[in-house]
Amino acid sequence: MKYAFISALILCASLTATAQVASHAPTTPAAPGKLPPAQVSAPVATGKPVAKVNGVVLTDRDLLREMYTIFPYAKQHNGFPKAQEAGIRQGALEMIIFEELVYQEAQRRHMTIPAAKIDAGAAAYKKTFDSSDQFNAYMQTEMHGSEKAFRQQIERSMLIDQLLKQEVDDKAVVSTAEIRAYYDKNPARFAVPDSYTFQSISVLPPRTPTPEQAREARKKADEALKQAKATKSYQDFGLLAEKISEDDFRVNMGDHKAVPADKLPPQVIVALKSMKAGDVSGLIQIESAYTIVRLNAHTPAHKQSFTEVQAQLKTELEKQKLEQVRSSFAKQLKSKAKVEIV
Question: Do 226 and 258 sit in the same domain of this protein?
Answer without folding.
Answer: yes
